[in-house]
């Protein structure tokens, strides 16, 4: 059963679940308060991302959900529910462990990206990240006849300075394709806790408040999936513990 409803996303959206984790479309009325009860105390969660950090529920809903997520037909945000925890206000099957998205998706080019991964600190270095990414990979790359979208490419982008993210992606079967230098500008990055790419600022730049990011590109494509990727992901998801992104 799809849950697309009024979601502005280019592919059908399903709730995805296994015995440990559930991925469900993020609903501000249900998930924003539990998420913002923890995330604002940890601005480092957004240090390598273009958005954030967000101090209040209103900031998160207005500046992230309404400004970035909802208008983009290539993006859908999910709430990650840890089903090994007791029922909570966020979900009757467990506790809210973080957020994750499909983004930069194209129904024409049959591709998507897994991004905006924010695993809340109590759930880091557990089964949560590996199972959540695994569920999104399965749905994206399995054929429609097996309940998937039948996409050809799933991408992972992260800062060149974010070594844990690169390691996590590679453990999950993503293959490094290259680095885009000076790919993003973190406007007021010095004030918002962003991590600079470590390079000298351009000559004659507007100042050193706007940081820059070099972006590492990794991918997990349909042929990777068919040539052992499917089995690798299932093995990882079956483990009890896994290093989070």
Quick tags:
alpha+beta; Aminopeptidase; single chain; disordered C terminus; 25% helix; 8-stranded mixed β-sheet
Q: Main beta sheet, described?
A: 8 strands, mixed
CATH superfamily: Gcn5-related N-acetyltransferase (GNAT)
Helix content: 25-40%
H/E series, N to C? EEHHEEEHEHEEH
Q: Based on helices, strands and strand pairing, what is the structural class? A: alpha+beta
Can you tell me the overall shape? globular
Rg, nearest Å: 18 Å
Mean pLDDT over all positions: 93
Number of domains: 1
Low-confidence stretches: 241-245
Instruction: Report the count of strand segments.
Output: 8
Counted by DSSP, the helix tally is 5
CATH topology: Aminopeptidase
Distance between the termini: 29 Å
Q: Give the DSSP E fraction (strand runs of 2 or more residues).
A: 25-35%
Outline:
This protein has 245 residues and is of the alpha+beta class. The protein has one domain: Aminopeptidase (3-Layer(aba) Sandwich), CATH 3.40.630.
């Amino acid at each position: 059963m799809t849950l697309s409803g009024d979601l502005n996303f280019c592919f059908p959206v399903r709730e995805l679940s296994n015995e440990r984790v559930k991925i469900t479309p993020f609903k501000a009325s249900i998930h924003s308060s539990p998420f913002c009860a923890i995330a604002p105390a940890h601005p480092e969660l957004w240090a390598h991302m273009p958005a954030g950090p967000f101090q209040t529920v209103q900031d998160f809903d207005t500046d992230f959900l309404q400004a970035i997520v909802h208008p983009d037909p290539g993006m859908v945000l999910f709430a990650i529910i840890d089903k090994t925890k007791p029922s909570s206000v966020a979900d009757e099957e467990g506790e809210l462990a973080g957020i994750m998205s499909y983004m930069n998706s194209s129904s024409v080019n049959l591709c998507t990206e897994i991004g905006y991964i924010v695993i809340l600190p109590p759930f880091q270095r557990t089964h949560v990240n590996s199972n959540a990414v695994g569920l999104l990979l399965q749905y994206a790359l399995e054929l429609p006849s097996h309940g998937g979208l039948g996409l050809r490419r799933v991408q992972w982008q992260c800062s060149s300075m974010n070594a844990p993210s690169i390691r996590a992606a590679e453990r999950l079967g993503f293959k490094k394709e290259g680095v885009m230098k000076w790919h993003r500008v973190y406007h007021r990055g010095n004030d918002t806790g962003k991590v600079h790419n470590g390079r000298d600022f351009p000559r004659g730049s507007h100042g050193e408040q706007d940081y820059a990011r070099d972006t590492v590109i990794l991918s997990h494509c349909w042929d990777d999936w068919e040539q052992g990727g499917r089995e690798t992901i299932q093995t990882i998801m079956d483990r009890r513990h896994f290093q989070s992104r």
